[in-house]
Design brief:
Layout: E1 3-9, H1 16-20, E2 24-25, E3 28-34, E4 50-54, H2 55-63, E5 69-78, E6 85-88, E7 103-106, H3 112-122, E8 132-135, E9 157-159, H4 166-172, E10 177-179, E11 194-196, H5 201-212, E12 217-224, H6 225-230, H7 234-255, H8 263-273, H9 283-299, H10 309-312, H11 314-317, E13 326-327
Parallel strand pairs: 1-3, 1-4, 7-8, 7-10, 8-9
Antiparallel strand pairs: 2-13, 4-12, 5-12, 6-10, 6-11
Length: about 325
């Protein structure tokens, strides 16, 4: 009889084969709960056994010696961040280096994506101390929460005054740029007043990949440690299911490419510009990226020291995947 695993995930398209049951395992019955907001701490969540979680917050758990969650180095959300820096179409900023001395809004200070975005900025000579930062909600529709998470510093990193939406401040000139993982409503319309700072962010991101050798990972899978201890094979089985779901979806994506007019061109460009293994999961495949992220967390003052990849993923540091029994269509 298969083990049932209650898994909380966002609506990533490539998880569709797993959600629909096209990808399955004889040993593991995955019940996917589609969520809009990440589970704050899966180790304390009674409704789920595993969940998509922030890489940054997982690293904080490891730094705090909280071993209630086992991290699986399957980076379910990964992507470049240069595109996530936006400004106004009428503004003068067109290069990342021009953000030195400017007022920058972020949707959450310790968020993994914003950490990677600041890493891209640091490569252009703009560090944390070289700008004034404000953490707040993106739009009126977003909730008012503590987005500083204990990292506020008067005059350097502050909450947005009066909890005003950052897109309003950007439009009015109160902010020079905003970091956001997801574009606000209306951004993709022709008359939007906003744009990416970099008009050719694709070239900048490709250069970044050629320099560092990886696509940044933001979210991974966390599983309650007690479940992994009871079923030592489970973490690898779940990772393989996710990999298979992505493989099945990618094959269908290539076949049914015309859901947007130039998706075919995009698929060709990705195949030409990136190696076939750019999104591979696993400890060895992501060791350099994991080390790079840990180094950034320390450099940006989020972690007190740089954790090694082995410290972050002790389950995988000295182990090999067993043979798995996953089926796909």
């Amino acid at each position: 009889m298969p083990v049932t695993l209650r898994l909380a995930l966002r609506d990533w398209d490539y998880m569709t084969p797993l959600v629909l049951g096209d990808v399955s395992s004889a040993r593991l019955d995955v019940k996917v709960d589609r969520v809009g907001t990440l589970i704050s701490h899966v180790g304390r969540d009674e409704a789920h056994d595993a969940a998509e979680m922030s890489f940054s917050r997982y690293a904080q758990l490891r730094a705090d010696d909280d071993d209630t969650v086992v991290g699986v180095p399957n980076f379910i959300m990964r992507g470049f961040r240069h595109r996530c820096i936006i400004t106004t179409k009428s503004g003068p900023i067109t290069q990342l280096g021009q953000l030195a001395g400017k007022r920058i809004g972020v949707t959450g200070w310790r968020d993994s994506g914003n950490t990677w975005t600041r890493a891209a900025l640091r490569r252009e000579g703009v560090g944390v101390e070289d700008a004034t930062w404000f953490a707040g909600r993106l739009t009126e529709a977003h909730p008012i929460t503590d987005r500083l998470d204990g990292f506020g510093r008067p005059g350097r990193i502050e909450a947005v005054p009066d909890e005003r939406p950052m897109m309003d401040l950007l439009r009015e000139g109160g902010l020079d740029a905003v970091f956001t993982p997801f574009m606000p409503d209306g951004f993709f319309t022709a008359n939007s007043p906003f744009r990416q700072v970099l008009s050719d962010f694709r070239s900048a991101e490709l250069q970044y990949f050629n320099d560092v050798g990886y696509v940044p990972g933001m979210h991974l899978i966390g599983i309650k440690t007690a479940i992994v201890e009871e079923h030592p094979w489970l973490a690898a089985e779940l990772s393989e299911l996710i990999d298979e779901s992505q493989r099945v979806w990618t094959a269908k994506r290539r076949k049914y490419a015309e859901t947007t007019p130039w998706m075919f061109d995009e698929i060709l460009k990705v195949s030409a510009d990136l190696p076939a293994n750019w999104s591979d999961s696993g400890f060895d495949a992501n060791r350099v990226m994991i080390a790079g992220f840990s180094s950034e967390l320390h450099a940006q003052g989020i972690l007190p020291r740089t954790l090694t990849p082995e410290e972050l993923f002790p389950l995988y540091a000295n182990s090999h995947r067993p043979q798995l029994a996953v089926s796909g269509s």
